[in-house]
Each structure stands twice: as C-alpha cells, then as structure tokens.
C-alpha cells in the first residue's frame, strides 16, 4: 500500500480535504503538503514542492503516489509533468484513470475542484490506486517517456 501525498492550490483545497478524509478512512498514510485554506497560492509553486517531496519519498520505486488538485486540475498536471520522473494524468472519469494506470503507469493523479465533485473524485481515486500497470509491451514505451524528458531541451 503506497503512501499518498496530497497537494492543492486554493482552487483544489476543498477537494483535497475531502480526498484526505476518504483516504485516511481507508488506512492510507497521507502526507498533506497543503494548501491549508482557500487563501490564494500559485499552483506551480505548490506542485514544485509536492514533486520534490514525492521524489524524496521514493515515487520512482512506487513507495508513494501523488494526488494534486487545483481549480481545473490542469495547471498542476502541466507543472507535474515538467519533472522527468512524473507521469501525471488529468482525470474526470474512472475510465481515463484506469487506462492511465494500465498503459502509462501513471504515478500522479490530477483533478479539478471546480470540475469534479468529491464523490466522483473518490471513485476515480479508488480505481486509480487499485489498478496495476500492464507492463509487457507498455514498459519500453514508458521508458521512452523518461528518455524524452532527459534528452529534449529546447
Ligand atoms: C486558480 O484560480 C486556478 O487558475 C487554478 O486553480 C488552476 O485551475 C489552474 O490550472
């Protein structure tokens, strides 16, 4: 059972709090990187702190996964995928979350507090956390993602 790091800006704060309660009830160890109120904070900075912590806590070994929330879920997803070890997916439905695990081995789930209601977000999270990576022919493709991130600088 991986630990879960949660982080949000002000637009995702309420959803993050709901998911924190949901996951705590299921026995997950939670690291809450904030924010801790609806006071405005910038999603790039929030995401950068979260990703550095995820790296320190061993995201690459699967020891921890990240769930990031902002108003739309888009800003945190863009910011997260700037990090070479991140495979972040934006999801507003269970199907996208499942396919992202099976084929892309996603390790960060991004959702929007202004887009996805808490009950649906909880369903998406549960599905995402439970679904394994298919591996096999998908492994070299995922490996190629890291290669792209390390070689393209323009
Ligand atoms: C903040 O108002 C909002 O722009 C942010 O939460 C996010 O939706 C950006 O992608």
Name the descriptors.
154 residues, alpha/beta, Ribose 5-phosphate Isomerase B, Chain: A, 5 strands, globular, binds D-ribose
Report on the structure:
With 154 residues, the protein is an alpha/beta fold. It has one domain (3-151): Sugar-phosphate isomerase, RpiB/LacA/LacB (Ribose 5-phosphate Isomerase B, Chain: A, 3-Layer(aba) Sandwich). 47% of the residues lie in helices and 16% in strands. The protein contains 6 helices and 5 strands; from the N terminus they run βαβαβαβαβαα. It has helices spanning 13-25, 43-56, 74-80, 94-104, 118-130, 138-151, and strands at residues 3-8, 30-32, 64-70, 88-90, 108-112. Helix 1 (13-25) packs across helix 5 (118-130). It binds D-ribose. Residues 9, 11, 43, 70-72, 74-75 line the site of D-ribose (RB5).
